[in-house]
Write a structure and sequence with these properties.
Layout lengths: L10 E6 L2 E7 H7 L11 E5 L1 E6 L15 H16 L2 H17 L2 E6 L4 H11 L2 E8 L10 H15 L5 E7 L7 H14 L3 E5 L3 H11 L3 H7 L7 E5 L5 H10 L2 E4 L1 H6 L7 H7 L2 E4 L12 H16 L7 H7 L2 H7 L16 E5 L11 H7 L6 E6 L2 E5 L2 E2 L4 H17 L1
Parallel strand pairs: 4-5, 5-6, 6-7, 8-9, 9-10, 10-11
Antiparallel strand pairs: 1-2, 3-12, 12-13, 13-14, 14-15
Helix pairs in contact: 3-4, 3-16, 12-13, 13-15
């Protein structure tokens, strides 16, 4: 992935104390090192772990609950009422365990989360051993986690302070959306983000209705308002961004901002089409996210890569747009850049954390392997992931989780599913 995406064969990666020590040929590795443990994976591709830059992990417990609805009905009639009646600390912990199990088994080793009770998401991530960037939620209306903007901010700052000693957990500010967070709260978020040097992630220009409503109410598009408030900077992650004009793309590029593309969720909710090719041409960093399982149904970055490449070609009207190499970068190093952890993860480089996955390319569905990169994006799926390491810890071996109790997780999910249906 760095400095350029490259495919190498007969590769060996030496890992020590959770970090990549060296990337050399197998012959050089045998000459230089006497390993305590040796993992050999013939007929596999070694990759940096995938990075899900935007999700709502606990919403896995609402998987399949509100399907086939447009976004406004999905939120206002199903999701928000259910969250107000059911979501609590226990819900978030159990839902996050289910999400993390799904992601690790599918080769995702780092995720960015935006949801209530973020302290529980941080706890479960640390328990599971996965790398996580946790959103410090901000809203202007009450939820089960906080009642006022001041309470959101104070709870978020407390979580940020508690995560400083965590090696695998970082934080970012997460004001929900322009239509749900007022100017005063956004100014405070901007000030604190600047002081603490934290990224800011926000749902921005998700639908045409969002933009039209803002124009009707204020005469400004949401991104213009955010720019006036000083939030369009290199720290910004604009999630969804399906409604962008050329000037806005140029502004995002000039600011060094990132866009987090969630193609399958946007397609399912008919939210619109993120102009990925135009963004990339302009120099905007574009990462990939799944969104939550309530709107996507699967936290599967392999499906997102494939969809991003195919849909990106259709939107651009160009078969050469969003090639496989770009899709893979979006799911790895670009996600690390968006979340502010590119110095730690996202590529196989000496000095970075050993966040790695192995993908087996032996089945009929991926043979013959003429171009490994093409096979990864257009043919392979999460079922081909055999191993996942985070900071050198072998969390998935031959498709089995090392730390998490899957049977217990699934039983808790079943019980919550019954409660969601009855809500």
């Amino acid at each position: 992935m760095e400095p350029d995406l490259d495919t190498r064969t007969d590769i060996a990666v030496a890992v020590d104390k959770g970090r990549i020590l060296d990337v050399v040929s197998r012959r050089e590795a045998d000459e230089k090192y006497a390993p305590d443990a040796l993992h050999e994976r013939g007929d596999h591709v070694l990759l940096p772990g995938l990075i899900n830059a935007h999700t709502h992990a606990a919403m896995t417990l609402m998987r399949g609950f509100a399907d086939d609805l447009r976004l406004e009905r999905w939120l206002e009639e199903r999701i928000w009422p259910t969250e107000m009646s059911l979501v609590n600390s226990e819900f978030v912990a159990d839902g996050s365990r289910l999400a993390i199990a799904e992601m690790l088994l599918g080769g995702t080793t780092c995720f960015g989360d935006m949801y209530f009770f973020p302290e529980r998401v941080a706890d479960v991530a640390a328990e599971a051993g996965i790398r996580a960037a946790i959103g410090l939620i901000a809203l202007d209306f009450p939820t089960p986690w906080a009642k006022t903007p001041d309470e959101y901010i104070s709870k978020g700052l407390a979580l940020h302070d508690s995560c400083r000693s965590q090696q695998l957990v970082t934080t970012f500010f997460a004001p929900h959306a322009p239509y749900s967070v007022g100017d005063e709260t956004l100014r405070r978020v901007r000030q604190l983000a600047d002081e603490l040097e934290l990224p800011v992630q926000m749902h921005i220009h998700e639908t045409k209705k969002e933009v039209d409503d803002a124009l009707r109410d204020s005469g400004r598009r949401p991104l213009a308002r955010l720019a006036e408030l000083g939030l369009v900077t290199s720290s910004l992650m604009a999630v969804h961004a399906t409604q962008l004009n050329d000037d806005e793309i140029d502004d995002l590029a000039a600011a060094g901002a990132s866009v987090v593309h969630c193609p399958r969720s946007n397609l399912k909710l008919v939210s619109g089409a993120c102009p990925v090719s135009r963004l990339q041409t302009a120099g905007v960093n574009v990462a990939l996210g799944t969104d939550g399982a309530a709107s996507n149904n699967r936290l599967d970055l392999w499906a997102e890569m494939d969809t991003a490449a195919l849909f990106g070609k259709y939107v651009a009207g160009d078969a050469e747009a969003v090639p496989a190499s770009m899709a893979l970068e979006m799911a790895t190093i670009n996600g690390a850049r968006a979340l502010g952890v590119e110095d730690v993860t996202g590529s196989i480089v000496a000095g970075k954390a050993a966040d790695l996955i192995c993908v087996e390319l032996t089945s009929a569905a991926v043979q013959p392997v003429i171009d490994p990169l093409s096979q990864l994006v257009y043919c392979a799926g999460r079922d081909q992931v055999t191993d996942s390491w985070v900071a050198g810890e072998h969390l998935v071996t031959d498709g089995r989780l090392a730390r998490l109790d899957v049977d217990s997780i699934l039983e808790r999910a079943r019980l919550w599913g019954q409660r969601v249906v009855g809500a």
